[in-house]
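Lab notebook, bench 4. Still working through the backlog of constructs that have no structural model yet. Next entry is a single chain of 264 residues. Request: give me the structure tokens for it.
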Amino acid sequence: MNGVALEEMFETYLEEARNVPFIGWNFEYLTKTGRMVEAPVKWNYYNIVLPYLLKAETMLDMGTGGGEVLSRFPSLPQNTFATEQYKPNVAVARERLEPLGVKVFEIQEEEPPFNSNLPFDNKFFDLIINRHEAYYPGELMRILKSEGIFITQQVGSINALSLRQFLTDKDETTANWNLQSAVEELKSAGFNILEQQEDIQFYRFYDVGAVAYFMKAIPWIIGDFTIDKYKGRLWELHIQIQENGFYDTPLHRFIVVAQKGSSI
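Model written out:
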């Protein structure tokens, strides 16, 4: 590809990333065409949750996004609730989940500790599930019934680290958020750990437009990210992808199944 064509393709990718909206919590715009691939982790969130969901009478999905994952479970408990903090997702989640009998609560974004004051009664839930949402162990203990179950899949602190470092052009210090730190925190709050797994795989991007769209959709990866502000670094990444065919960055996930003690 000559220099003119290379620049034209770059501008086309960025313009597309600017204009295509990100709705709910759904990357199918990239994944359906294979422009972005997530390597699979060692477990399946759906299959871990399902046995507990089938036994539950009251259930909460924390950080439901657009309700994409929750809506795929069969036979939700009669009393199923969901929370969502990211305002653009709330209407999407309600449209998808309310016909299924799920009440969606909009939670105001707050300073840490996140989700420390949820609008539910003490000892209300048999099951709380959480996929990539912040949580406060003390509040989980308050709203879970005795022997209630908490299942969380989390994004670890080295997630997309090399991409963050490339775009910011600096080495970043990372938080210590991983399986060990999460397990220790839950144990300290009084949970018994039933299951735990951690895996580091990779995201693969096949064009710079996919990277720009990904970064636009998840603004907390780089707090000041805009396509225009980071255009110079995106150009460097565009050249690298043209030379190598793709760009990989770490995907860091861990999952914990925890149970509230029977005497609490």
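Notes after review: The chain has one domain: 3-260. The first strand starts at residue 36 and ends at 38. Flag for follow-up if needed.
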